[in-house]
Amino acid sequence: GQNIDQPTEMTATEGAIVQINCTYQTSGFNGLFWYQQHAGEAPTFLSYNVLDGLEEKGRFSSFLSRSKGYSYLLLKELQMKDSASYLCAVRAPGGGNKLTFGTGTQLKVEL
Amino acid sequence: DADVTQTPRNRITKTGKRIMLECSQTKGHDRMYWYRQDPGLGLRLIYYSFDVKDINKGEISDGYSVSRQAQAKFSLSLESAIPNQTALYFCATSDGGSDEASFGSGTRLTVV
Description:
The structure holds two protein chains of two kinds.
Chain A: E1 3-5, E2 9-13, E3 18-25, E4 32-37, E5 44-49, E6 53-57, E7 60-65, E8 70-75, E9 84-91, E10 99-101, E11 105-110
Parallel strand pairs in A: 2-11
Antiparallel strand pairs in A: 1-3, 3-8, 4-5, 4-9, 6-7, 7-8, 9-10, 9-11
Chain B: E1 4-7, E2 10-13, E3 19-25, E4 31-38, E5 42-51, E6 54-57, E7 64-70, E8 73-78, E9 87-94, E10 102-103, E11 107-111
Parallel strand pairs in B: 2-11
Antiparallel strand pairs in B: 1-3, 3-8, 4-5, 4-9, 5-6, 7-8, 9-10, 9-11
């Protein structure tokens, strides 16, 4: 079966750093994705990890530990526009982008 | 212009009616997907297609059918809509060499 857990909501302050965790238990694994979704809009790709370690891309970093079934998304220098839902998704083996999504973490950035 | 276009953006339909949601893309991707999103449940895969002759069921295909009319077009049909199919529907595309999927802007469907 597929199970992906992430916190439902988080609140952080503008300019701060926030870490959004994701744990997964899936029958197969071929990479973990983070997407950002503003209310009523399409998800947009943020990051991808298939090997253990940290991937950095500007203000956003993502970490993966396959042995622990764990990932996190780190957002630095938070801005008000970062208020959105952050979706963790695991890709199934076998090609393509068959993704199993977590329910998303709603991040609110406050002044 | 959007790379992945969904029509309609919003639709209200009655229980029992047949409805088709359309998706077209200009990205040249061979792989296309339909997801639905419900509050508290996240995105769930309905159907996916790796090329024109390839159609596969996803996690929640019951009550839905799809048609891949061309590489660029992938439509989702609800043969007899029911209220629990009220949701936000997203089409997505990817290609064999890419790690990211591109999503359309979504279709908000309400079945009354």
